[in-house]
């Protein structure tokens, strides 16, 4: 009981130092505070000032199984975003995780990796592993057979500005979609159910 109380008090203190304005204590212990708060307890103010999406992203994955003789079988693309959308669409109480886990992992990946998909920090490596694990687990749940590598494809389609075209304001040209392919990542062998 005492251990539980101690952990709770330390947690509350560290989260307080994370969200409090900069001060001598939070500056002195910033590494320890960040290590505890990120990525699980990270705080933001999106509830009060949401940052609307400016693009729709379709995240798909394909997997590869390499046989002992060196030949590889590659699956077709599996739409992970569509699976998330269908899990939310007719659910009266959709899971926040189902709605946001994959999208937030991708947004974090964009922030920590360059356009060359090279991680530039320990946090970037952690985010890459997190994204890879989410994709591998979701593919394993949907895809028959075993696999040892996974690749992601992200198609980003800009969201058109609101409002209909009028005589004084012609319709804007539809921006074209961008497709980004991530490298093949090795994963622990997954045997899908």
In short:
With 193 residues, the protein is an alpha+beta fold. The protein folds into two domains: 2-37, no CATH class; 55-158 and 176-192, no CATH class. It has six helices and six strands, in the order H-H-H-E-E-E-H-H-H-E-E-E.
Describe what you observe in this structure.
Helix 4 packs antiparallel against helix 5 (96-112). It is globular and about 55 Å long. A hairpin with a 5-residue loop joins strand 1 and strand 2 (72-74). The protein contains 6 helices and 6 strands, in the order αααβββαααβββ. The chain has helices spanning 2-19, 24-28, 30-37, 80-89, 96-112, 122-142; strands at 55-66, 72-74, 78-79, 145-158, 178-181, 185-192. The chain has 193 residues and is α+β, with helices and mostly antiparallel strands. The chain has 2 domains: 2-37, no CATH class; 55-158 and 176-192, no CATH class. The mean pLDDT is 83. Helices cover 41% and strands 22% of the residues. Strands 1, 2, 3, 4, 5 and 6 form a 6-stranded antiparallel β-sheet that branches.
Shape: globular
Helix content: 40-55%
**Terminus-to-terminus distance:** 40 Å
Domain tally: 2
Query: Which structural class fits the helix and strand makeup?
Result: alpha+beta
How would you sum up the major sheet? 6 strands, antiparallel
**How much of the sequence is in beta strands?**
15-25%
Cα gyration radius (Å)? 21 Å
Oligomer: single chain
Compute the average pLDDT: 83
What is the ordering of alpha helices and beta strands? Answer: HHHEEEHHHEEE
Count of DSSP strands: 6
Which blocks of ≥5 consecutive residues have pLDDT under 50?
Answer: none
Q: Can you count the helices?
A: 6
Organism: Streptomyces exfoliatus (Streptomyces hydrogenans)
InterPro entries: DUF5819
Pfam families: DUF5819 (PF19136)
Protein name: DUF5819 family protein
